[in-house]
UniProtKB/TrEMBL annotation:
CDD domains: GRX_GRXh_1_2_like
Domain of life of the native organism: Eukaryota
GO cellular component, one term: cytoplasm
Name the UniProt record assigns to this protein: Glutaredoxin-C4
Positions of the Glutaredoxin domain: 39-100
Database matches in PROSITE patterns: GLUTAREDOXIN_1, GLUTAREDOXIN_2
Family statement drawn from the similarity comment of this UniProt entry: Belongs to the glutaredoxin family. CPYC subfamily.
Family matches, as Pfam families: Glutaredoxin
Keyword terms of this UniProt record: Disulfide bond, Electron transport, Redox-active center, Signal, Transport
InterPro entries with a match to the protein in the record: GLR_AS, Glutaredoxin, Glutaredoxin_euk/vir, Glutaredoxin_subgr, Thioredoxin-like_sf
Origin species: Cocos nucifera
Gene Ontology terms for molecular function: glutathione disulfide oxidoreductase activity
Length: 125
């Protein structure tokens, strides 16, 4: 039984090895980006929900670091990495102070109920 599992793992590594390595690279990119900026939005430039999420931060006079996945050759791989990291492949995906806030609906809800302002430290302004 163990030999069969090892053979299956070897076959997966052989056929998908480069994809696994690429995903690891993109996972590291996501984690590094999120840890290097207070606000990060993984977005697509043509997505209306992404544009509206970015507008929320403009209303708060905050400038997020935006990664436009459709404008990067590795955008699809980054989207796959997001799926692994946060369980969602959809955009936008928003991170505040290194923590995943969520997508568009989560961002708007946090904005409307004041949680976003608290996370950003602007609730007393």
């Amino acid at each position: 039984m163990m030999a069969l599992a090892a053979a299956a793992a070897a076959a997966v590594a052989f056929f998908f090895g480069s994809a696994v390595k690429a995903s690891t690279i993109e996972e590291a990119f996501v984690k590094d980006t999120v840890s290097s900026h207070d606000i990060v939005i993984f977005s697509k430039s043509y997505c209306p929900y992404c544009r509206r999420a970015k507008a929320v931060f403009r209303e708060l006079n905050k400038v997020p670091h935006v990664v436009e996945l459709d404008q990067r050759e590795d955008g699809s791989n980054i989207q796959d990495a997001l799926s692994i990291i946060v369980g969602r492949r959809t955009v936008p995906q928003v991170f505040i102070n290194g923590k995943h806030l969520g997508g568009f609906d989560d961002t708007v809800e946090a904005y409307e109920n004041g949680r976003l302002a608290k996370l950003l430290g602007t609730d007393d302004l």
